[in-house]
């Protein structure tokens, strides 16, 4: 799958007549005005700048209006560049410039351009779909409507707990006046409270009613369905085993709905510690947000101990986590390198990297475009890109723009999406509200 060129373009030296570059600084052009080719895009400017900054150099990224293809004469800034064929027959360039007489900056500029010529290749980028499920995006939309509807009415809109979703969307809610908190204790009658997609406990719902709060229930319909089912099973006398993780945000609401007749189990081995009276009345639920594959081994272990264990219909499962894992595996299996976008200390980013490596792909977590190095890309013909939940907004597009400056770029977007055509318990919602399918499908 790896790419490669038999020869690399030479680094040419020119000058910027009338241009201005500060001594001690390297100017990286974002575009060049060329008398032959017209405007030349320098999409890889952020990559070149990243290399220079890693070496401790001061960098500015600016457009360059004119340059001449002749060695600098000592009175004008020196420009170093290499060109390649981009998409649609257009020419792209990587370039850097230094002030007249600034030998140190000039050497750094030439070296940065030279090292990026090793990564000038045609490539295919395979982009995995968004990490955010429809349930999370629906909750953000409902919260936004609540803020807009309350404008000018004097009521405060409180968003309870951590609203999952893109960081810019959450920031936008705060800018519009939404108040984020984890308790209703400070809210007063007439205030609006938005329940998050992962739901809340029955006790918290009751407290909101007692305080006279206007409730906007943004609970994901699949989470709400699991809460109702836990209550129904417990009411008929079953002990409910919730297959999931104790620290998951949806756990308290589901467990609380069972009124003390529920136990959470994360692995098949965890069923060995269950000591439940009335073993003939055992049912299990799969916590929304857990991969559906997690249910099989735990359910088998439950039935080995309690043969009459009852399970839910698969059309009630949330497939978002399984679809996301399937997407990452599909992308990783087709690429030489997977770039996972997000924070180095993000558990989600590390999990995505692990999934990619399990499929035989190299994986690298990057927080910013400038983290990409020539060594990462050299010889890479097919590159996977996947956002973690900690990726900053728009990073995927910035990465694609930077890579487009290194040669012809093809873009493929891939997404595994499970389509459940009938959910009897959710008939009151529209398909877009079900929260089962992640966004970003082709």
Please give a quick description of this structure:
The chain is α/β, with parallel strands linked by helices and 442 residues long. It contains 12 helices and 18 strands.
Portion in strands? 15-25%
Integer average pLDDT: 88
Poorly predicted parts: 1-6, 427-442
- Count of extended strands: 18
How many domain units? 4
Q: What's the alpha carbon Rg, rounded to whole Å?
A: 28 Å
Order of helices and strands: EEEHEEEHEHEHEEHEHEHEEHHEHEHEHE
State the separation between the terminal residues, measured CA to CA. 23 Å
Q: Estimate the global geometry from the Cα principal axes.
A: elongated
Q: Count of helices? A: 12
Protein described:
There is one protein chain. It is elongated and about 90 Å long. It contains 12 helices and 18 strands. It has 442 residues and is α/β, with parallel strands linked by helices. Helices cover 30% and strands 22% of the residues. The chain starts with 11 loop residues before the first strand and ends in a 28-residue tail after the last strand. It has 4 domains: 12-117, no CATH class; 126-131 and 320-414, 4-hydroxy-3-methylbut-2-enyl diphosphate reductase, catalytic domain (Cobalt-precorrin-4 Transmethylase, domain 1); 134-219, Rossmann fold; 222-317, Cobalt-precorrin-4 Transmethylase, domain 1 (3-Layer(aba) Sandwich), CATH 3.40.1010. The strands form 4 sheets. Strands 1, 2, 3, 4, 5 and 6 form a 6-stranded mixed sheet that branches.
């Amino acid at each position: 799958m790896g790419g490669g060129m038999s020869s690399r373009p030479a680094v040419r030296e020119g000058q910027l007549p009338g241009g201005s570059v500060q001594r001690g600084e390297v100017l990286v052009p974002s575009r060049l005005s060329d008398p032959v080719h017209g405007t030349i895009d320098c999409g890889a400017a952020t990559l070149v700048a990243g290399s220079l900054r890693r070496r401790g150099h001061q960098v500015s990224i600016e457009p360059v209006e004119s340059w001449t293809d002749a060695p600098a004469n000592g009175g004008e800034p020196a420009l170093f560049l290499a060109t390649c064929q981009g998409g649609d027959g257009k020419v792209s360039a990587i370039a850097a410039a230094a002030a007249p007489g600034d030998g140190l900056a000039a050497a750094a500029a030439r070296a940065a351009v030279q090292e990026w010529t090793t990564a000038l290749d045609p490539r295919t980028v395979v982009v995995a779909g968004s990490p955010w499920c429809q349930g999370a995006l629906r909750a953000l939309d409902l919260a936004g409507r609540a803020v807009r509807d309350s404008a000018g009415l004097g009521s405060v809109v409180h968003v309870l707990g951590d609203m999952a979703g893109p960081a810019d969307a959450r920031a936008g809610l705060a800018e519009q006046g939404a108040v984020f908190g984890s308790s209703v204790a400070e809210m007063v009658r007439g205030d609006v409270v938005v329940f998050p997609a992962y739901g809340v406990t029955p006790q918290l719902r009751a407290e909101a009613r007692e305080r006279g709060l206007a409730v906007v229930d943004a609970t994901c319909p699949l989470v709400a369905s699991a809460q109702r089912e836990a209550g129904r099973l417990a009411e008929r006398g079953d002990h409910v085993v919730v297959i999931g993780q104790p620290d998951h945000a949806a756990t308290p609401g589901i467990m609380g709905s069972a009124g003390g007749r529920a136990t959470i189990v994360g692995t098949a081995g965890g069923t060995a510690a269950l000591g439940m009276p009335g073993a003939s009345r055992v049912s299990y639920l799969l916590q929304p947000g857990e991969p559906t594959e997690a249910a099989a081994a735990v359910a088998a272990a439950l039935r080995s101990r309690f043969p009459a264990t009852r399970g839910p219909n698969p059309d009630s499962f949330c497939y978002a986590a399984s679809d996301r894992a399937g997407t990452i595996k599909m992308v990783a299996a087709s690429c030489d390198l997977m770039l996972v976008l997000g924070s180095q200390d993000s558990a989600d980013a590390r999990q995505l990297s692990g999934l990619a490596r399990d499929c035989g792909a190299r994986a690298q977590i990057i927080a910013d475009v400038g983290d990409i190095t020539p060594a990462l890309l050299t010889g890479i013909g097919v590159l996977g890109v996947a956002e973690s939940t900690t990726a900053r907004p728009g990073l995927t597009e910035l990465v694609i723009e930077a890579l487009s400056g290194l040669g012809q770029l093809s873009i493929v977007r891939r997404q595994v999406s499970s389509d459940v055509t009938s959910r009897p318990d959710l008939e009151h919602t529209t398909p877009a509200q079900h929260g089962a399918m992640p966004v970003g499908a082709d």
